[in-house]
Structures are given as structure tokens and as C-alpha cells.
Amino acid sequence: MIIAERKPMAEIRQMIAPYKKLLLAGCATCVAVCWAGGEKEVGILASQLRLAQSKGRKKISVLEATVERQCEKEMVEELRDKVQEADAVLSLACGSGIQTMAEMFEDKPVFPAVNTTFIGMPEREGLWVEMCGACGDCFLDRTGGICPVVRCAKGLLNGPCGGTRKGGKCEIDPEKDCAWVLIYRRLEKQDRLDLMRQYYTPKNFRAVKRPGRIQSVKA
Amino acid sequence: MATPFREILKTKDFVVTAEAAPGKGSNVSKAIEHIELLKDKVDGLNVTDNQSSVMRYPSLGVCLLVKEHGGEPILQVTCRDRNRLAIQADLLFAYSRGINNVLCLTGDSIDVGDHKEAKQVFDLDSVQLIHLVHTLNSGKDMAGNELDGGIDFCIGTTATPSADPLEPQLIKVEKKLKAGVSFVQTQAVYELDELKRFTEFVRTVDGGVKILAGIVPVVGAKMAAYMNDNVPGVFIPQYLIDELAQAPKGTGVAKGIEIAARMIRQIREEKVCDGVHIMFIGREERVPEILETSGLL
Amino acid sequence: MNKCIVAFCCEHSAYPAADLAGKLRLHYPESLRIIRVPCAGRVDVIHILKAFENGAVAVLVLGCEDGACHHITGNTRAKERVEYCNMLLKEIEADGSPVAMFNLSPNEPHKFVRAVNEITKRIKEPGR
Questions:
Q1: Out of C45, C93, C94, whose CB is closest to A44?
Q2: Could A157 and B178 be called an inter-chain contact, meaning their C-beta atoms sit closer than 8 Å?
């Protein structure tokens, strides 16, 4: 799923500084699962913003609303009344949700309360790791199901680089595994190291021409 | 004028290369000093390219200076800063100006350098880069177009004999060898047995490629410990750290040179590999001392 | 609710301790508001923040001693949430309004009173 992380408080406060009535809009899908922007997180941020008034300034009013998926126009439509009440919207959804809000309510400033970071999964409770880079040219069949495009820090298709640290950790971060060592171990387990010995030609970085656009054939 | 490196590789018993790092700025006087100091003492002079991801005057630029001053330059190309178009264009230019040796590397990550927010390119990896040079050598570009004026590079690459774990690295080395390289310059080695194992492996894949052992003098026990913990693929054995620790204060550099020279002599006497590649960045002016002490001059 | 101290009291430990403190006429601030909960672990971050929104100047979370939680890990979770809450308040420069967790047994009324007095001392912005 999409992993996001709440922006630093100072940055959020700077964005919303000119506004007196805010709507905090959450999303109950990806950002709720990764504890960044679900109903719970909306409640906490709203509470913090209400408490965070400098002395002498007028109180701000903070409305709260969470939809099932903020990237779906039909669901976002449900928020129309609340949006109209507010001067500005602070969205805790991923970049897709924030932009859907901005498009649906073009007369209201919509601000991102989170940084959308990657497609990933929970390695364990509270620890989110990147798994997929949405490159549009999936290579997982050749690497035992481990993505070298994003899990290798350099995106090598013929890895590893010479920078692997002792024990198979990544040159960039000793906490992170070298993806190619992981791939080696996985393929070895399956007796398919021939896949790693094969030469892979340069990647097609234009598999998805950004901005991406896919027209489904289904009606 | 210097003998072309590819000829030296074919004919010389023990090949010696060294490395010069360009400075940070358009002032090339120091680079010229190092070139003048080393050009006649080594068979080839590598010029690093934004080494350790620190922005510097380009390898291509100093290689031109090496050529101008009568030395034999080895251009270093990493995959970190340039995409396939830029790399091909640079190689065409380099060749047109008389540079025809290239070392193909992946490149350090941006995070170890001084421009930590820059975009990493890595359009290609080092194996693909080696294939690319062969493609250009054959008169075509990567998209299959005929070149109006081709190139003919002598291709080299790097390897890490002390990697841990080793097997994935060897798979990578094998791919590089199969892609076709004339020489391999290894990362710093301090253990002869590791180097021998590595050389044996390489010979099973390619009996003709020339292996130049990486020599990086260590100037103190603290530096050795630091390198063991922080520099990937480097392993300095305890007995060398002890020897460095016992050196009297102020003699660290001399001791490091002594150990490096000893290693070079051993490699040469035991015919472990085909030569050495000396890296003493920041102390290029001491490289002749290493060459003398090891009997190479 | 203004200027009060809110104490979330676990019904297995802090609530009976508070009750005993009352019976023994031990002295603690009148502004204390006791909220009985089945376990300290029932208290979530939003409850603490809401207490402040409604005028509290300090919040206490009181639960069973380590290893004695009736719900096994309730007191551990409560401690983590209290720490997280302090971080959230620090983010908005509201850390003059303290939140703290204390552990006690049901027969420790003096410990209860000490906790209340302790948190009172930590208040840096009276009258928020």
C-alpha cells in the first residue's frame, strides 16, 4: 500500500497560518493503515492544532472528516458541505487523495499534511519498508520476488555493486540489507542462481511515460 | 609520448597504474603537478570522477591534461551522474581527443558525498556500461544507429576481492568478465590469500584479463580500524593493525608506505597477479616513494 | 473543567487507592478530576489531548505495577502512549502541560497522592 508520513509540525503550521477555519480530511485506506492519515490521526492532529494557539491570537476552528478513499470523486463529493464551511483544507491523504480534493474543490486552498513516500508494507508493527517503485516494467520474475529497482539503493539490474557492507548490508545504510544479497540468498534457496548469472540489458525507464495514464479496455 | 596502455597490458610483465584526483574548482595547477610527478613512473594514470560523490573537476578534463603532458590517461566513468546519452557523448569526445582507456564503475551513492540532495542517475549499471563501450567500439550507438566516426577503447573495470559475502560479488565479476574487459583494478587488498583466491576465480572465467591489485597505504592503526568498519569491501587483518600501532609517533605515513611496498614486492615475486593499482589520494606526491621502496622504479 | 488535573485511574489499582486516600482524608488538590477506566491501557492519546482541549492543565495516567496488569500489557501500552503524547505536546510547544504515568497498587493511597503532587509541580503554564 501507499506509505505516507506526517509532515513536520512547523511546516504544517506555516501552511495553515493565514486560515481561521480548517477542515482536516483523512482517508481510511492506505494512510490509515500506516498511521499517517486515518480518522485517528485526523483527531490527534486536529486536537494538536486547537491546542497550539499562540497567546493573543484568535482561536482557530478545526473540522474533521474522513472518507473511505480520498482518491475517489464520489466519496470526496460527500465532503462538499464541510469543505464549503472551511477557509482551507488540510488533507492527510496520499498525494493522489490530496490532488483529488484540490480538483473537486478548486476554490479552496488544499494543503498536504503528509509526505507520500513509497509503496510498501509493514515489515513488523510500525515499521514500513519500500517494496515497489511503480516502474511499469516489473522485474520480479527474475529476482526471486525481490525488487532491485527500489530495494537496491542504486537500482542495479546486474548487482551487487562493490559497496556491499560486511554481512550483506547496503553501502548507504548499515540498517538496510543489500537487495542483491537478498536476491542471491532467495535464488540459491530455489536453486535458480542461473537467473542471477544472466546479463540484463539496460532498463526501459520510459515504460511509464509520466504523467502516467492508463485507459482500461473494460467498459 | 607514452606507450598506449593496451599495448603495455599485452607486453609488460608487471603493470603499474596510479590514481590522481582532480581538485574542487577550475584551478588545475595541482593536478598538473601530480601528472608531471607520476606520468613517466607509471604505465597508466587513472583520473577519478566525482570520487566519493564529491563534486570535482571532471575526469575527462584532467585526462586531457594527462594527454597534453605526455602521460597515458585512464578515464573513469561512473553510472551515478550521467545517463546513457551523456556517457556515449562523453566517450565520443574523449576518443576524439586521444583518450582511449576507460574504467567502468557503478559509482558511490550520493549520500557519501557533499551534494546529498542530488538525484542519482544510475541509468545504467557497470556491466551495462561495459557492454555500451563494446557497442560504440563496434561502430554503433546504443540505439543501433551507425556512428560517423567510431571509437576504440581499451576497457577496464573494478572488483572487490574482500567482499563479504563474496559469492554475489563473484557472480557480478563473472558478468563483467563475460562482457569483455582487458583489465581489472581491484579495491584495496591487504591479504595475499584473498587476492590469490580472487585471481584464481578470475582465471577460470577469463585467462587473458590483466588483474591489477589495489594498493591503498594505511597510515595508522586508527585509520585501519576506521576503514575496516566503514569502507565496504576492505579488510585489514589484525597483524597489520598491530604493526601500525607499534610504529613510533609521526612515522605513520612511512610505515603505511613500507607495508604497501612489501605487499607489492610479494605480489610481484609470487606472481599473484599482473600488476598493481596504487591509490594514495591526497598524498599523490608520496607515490614515487612507494614505487621506489617496492623496487618498481 | 478549567485548570483541573485529570487523572485516568485504573479500576484495579489507582481507583481503589484514590478511594482509600479520600477515606483517610489525605490531602490532594481540589482541582483533581478522577476518571475511572477498566485498565490504564484503555486510555488512548486522543483522550489525553481532549482533556487538555477541555481545560485540563495536567493529565495523569495511573495503572498497575509492572507485571501486575490484569490485562497483561495494558500498563505498558499506556506508558508508551503517555510518552508519545508528551512528544505531540512538545511539537506544538505545549509541553508546559505535563502528562505522566505512575504505577501503584490498590493499597497505596500515599503513592496516589504523591503522584498528584508530583504532576502539579511539573505544570509550567498555569491557566491554559
A1: C45
A2: no
